[in-house]
Structures are given as structure tokens and as C-alpha cells.
Amino acid sequence: MAARSLTPEERDTLVAAATAARERAAAPYSHFHVGAALLAEDGRIFQGCNVESASYGLTNCAERTAVFKAISEGVRGFRAVAVVTGADEPTSPCGACRQVLWDQCRDIAVVMATTGGALEETTLATLLPRAFEL
Ligand code: THU
After folding, report:
1. How far away, in angstroms, is 33 Cα from ligand 1 center?
2. Which of 47, 57, 89, 110 holds its CA 20 to 30 A away from the CA of 65?
3. Cα 11 to averaged position of ligand 1 atoms, centre (Å)
């Protein structure tokens, strides 16, 4: 099913949740703090931040943190994800996160925002055309 866009209120709430999650980023190596918030069909919001490792490759992005939290709580069915960074321009989810989001959420709305107030909304199908599915 194609992604449905959010109401302005839903978008604001989701971006606020991702902004709050970003405050909890554990990013001592990159100093690039990322927050994510995943909106479930039932209205619940799951927050995530990036968690870096001294063994750099073990780092987990904010988006995957949010997805894994929701899935591990037994939640299925999602509407949107918001990603917030402190960059000048909105940051889009990395390739690994796009695949994991597709695996668990299929075509959801993706809101990319900055702490400075820039905002873009797109869909996961736009960011990940011809997604891999088993
Ligand atoms: N990062 C995310 O959390 N999400 C993304 O979509 C891109 C990158 C994190 C990983 C790492 O902790 C830091 O940003 C720099 O790459």
C-alpha cells in the first residue's frame, strides 16, 4: 500500500519526538547526533537515537533503533518515520536503514527535519525504489 502523508499535527508531533530522542544520541566518535521517531498505525510513537560503538562498525543508526524497539515490543503496522539532525539540510536515512524500514514498515511517509527548522517529507518507496524483498 502506498504511503499516506501525515496531517500537519501528526508531523509536528513526530518531529518533536525525534528531536527529543536526538538529545539521547550516544555519538562520541562522529558527534553527529540523530533522533528518529516511528509512528505505529495504532498511534504509538517509538523513539530512537544513534548509538555508536568503539568498534565503529557496530554503530546503530537512530532509525534502526526505533524500528527494533517497536518490533521487539510486538508492534506491527507503521505509518511514518521522522529523522532529525543538526545538519544544515535535512538528512535522509542511510541505505541500511532504508532496507530495514522497508522490511518492517513497507511504504511509509518519511519526514526529514533539522533542529534549525528545515523539513522535507517524502516516501520510503521514493528513497528506495525496487526494494529487495524475499
Ligand atoms: N546515522 C543515523 O543515525 N542515521 C542515518 O540515517 C545516518 C547516520 C548515524 C550513524 C552514526 O552514529 C552517525 O550518524 C554518523 O554517521
Report:
1. 8
2. 89
3. 21
